[in-house]
Each structure stands twice: as C-alpha cells, then as structure tokens.
Design goal:
Blueprint lengths: L2 H25 L3 H12 L5 H13 L30 E3 L4 E3 L1 H13 L3 H5 L8 H11 L13 H15 L9 H5 L4 E3 L2 E3 L5 H8 L4 E3 L4 E3 L1 H11 L10 H13 L9 E3 L1
Parallel strand pairs: 5-7
Antiparallel strand pairs: 1-2, 3-4, 5-6
Length: 270
C-alpha cells in the first residue's frame, strides 16, 4: 500500500470530523461525542501507522559504528522480545541500575548495541519524525492488546513510584500548579480535549493505554515523555531533560495507576 493510499482515509476522516462536530452541535450533542466518533473513524487509518512502519525499519536496520540492529535490545522481557514489553514499562534494569521507560531504555540499547554516542541519539528527540518517536511507536504497537502491568514492587521501582506520586501532587512553580490541579477531578476539559483524572484507575487506564498517540493538533506522534515535558512546560516549571529521572518517575506513577488496562496505542488525541 502506498503512502497516498494510507493517507487518503485519514484525510477523509478529518473532513468528516468537521461535519460531525457541526452536526453534534445542531443536534444538541456534545463536541466530545463527535470527537469520539472521529477517533473511531481514524482507527483503521491512523497516521501513526506510518511512523510505526519507520520504527520497524529502524529497529531491524544495522546502523552506527558497530553496524548492528536493535533486534537484541532487551526491553525487560529478554533480548529482542517486543510483545507486551511496553505494557510493563517503566521497570528496573539491573544492567543500568536504573528504572527506565521506553525512551530511556531505547537510548541505552542504541548506544550499547550500535555504538552511536548518546548526544547524537537524543539531540533531536522532540522533533517530528525523530528516530526516538518512530522507535517508541513501533515498540508500543507491539504491546497492543497486552494488559498494563506495572506493580512497582521491586525496591528501586517502589522508591521512584513515591517520587512520581509526590511530583504529581506537589504544587510549585510561579503558578502554584501541580499535575493534580488538572488531573485529579472528574469531567474536566481543556478546549475540546477531555482531561483524565489520574487518581481514578479507570480514567488512568482509558488514557494511558492510548499513548504514544498521533496528535491531530500537532500533525505528529507524541511519546509519553514528550507529552509530559509539554505539560511541565505549561505549568511553568523548569523543563526536564529527555529521559531524566523525573519523567521516568512521573510516567511510572501514571502507568502504575493504569495497571490492568489493555494497551490500544498508538492512539489519536487532539
């Protein structure tokens, strides 16, 4: 199937979304109902599929000074085992002595297996079309249908989970803001986007199982780290570095809250 063939259904669905929203207003239904219909229409034509395909190519292609692929990357279930791995991240890795999420673990694999310097790996991680974006999308897609399983019972995980929970609830910064300011109440919305209540496991499962996600407003796939960096930036906190402990800790807390949910990503978000 050509790029044009895969893109055409998405363009059609996008146009249909505008019709759905207008129709919903005319019928007295909420815009959220129309957006839900729109997302369902895009399930078979998600632009993230193209990013996933590129990630699969990057995973299996020999690159770097060591001319090696990433097919022996250990994401927690053994070298090269992908199915269900993303659904169990973040987790502790004895070979690094750290709790790692998908992004930070992939950086470890790229530097160790392929010999690419870390500074080169992470330099443009946030840009649309980055290798990290593609690889995370591919890895996450291989967990589709798998239950999120992040119990965080291992001592390093339990300690970082406490850090993530503290960060989620701690009010700070020039706006006296916390993640919980927006994400600890039901039925909240920012513009047309529903704001999940992550203190409710059911809401956490509904949200976290959709990431990474194609963001219609940005015309690109965002990984969970990129989503968290943007949230933290909007709270006017100092922006955390890519793959930093605070991002892993916060993601660990959110994934722990979402345990039991079935992975559906890559999803579609505003």
């Amino acid at each position: 199937m050509t790029f044009r063939d895969r893109l055409l259904p998405w363009v059609t669905a996008l146009a249909s979304c505008l019709v759905l929203v207008a129709g919903a207003r005319a019928e007295g239904r909420s815009a959220a109902d129309a957006i839900h219909e729109y997302r369902e229409m895009l399930e078979d034509a998600n632009p993230a599929d193209l990013v996933e395909m590129r990630g699969e190519e990057l995973w299996s292609t020999a690159r770097g000074p060591r001319h090696a692929s990433l097919e022996q990357c250990d994401l927690g279930l053994g070298p090269g085992v992908l199915d269900g791995a993303y659904a169990r991240l973040p987790r502790y890795f004895a070979d690094t002595g750290r709790v790692q999420d998908a992004e930070s673990r992939l950086v470890t694999c790229i530097t160790r297996l392929q010999g690419i310097p870390r500074e080169d790996v992470v330099r443009h991680w946030y840009r649309r079309g980055s290798d990290i974006e593609a690889l995370v999308t591919f890895v996450a897609a291989r967990s589709k249908g798998s239950p999120v399983d992040v119990p965080a019972r291992e001592p390093h995980e339990a300690a970082l989970l406490a850090v993530g929970a503290d960060f989620f609830f701690r009010r700070s910064g020039p706006l006296d803001f916390a993640c919980s300011t927006c994400h600890s109440q039901d039925d909240r919305r920012i513009r047309l986007q529903e704001v999940p209540n992550f203190t409710d496991p059911a809401a956490a499962r509904a949200s976290m199982t959709q990431w990474p996600a194609y963001r219609v407003s940005q015309s690109s796939v965002w990984t969970m780290e990129r989503r968290l960096v943007d949230c933290i930036r909007q709270m006017r906190y100092p922006e955390p570095g890519f793959a930093s402990d605070v991002l892993v800790a916060l993601q660990l807390y959110l994934q722990h809250q979402a345990s039991g949910g079935v992975m559906q990503g890559p999803g579609i978000r505003r």
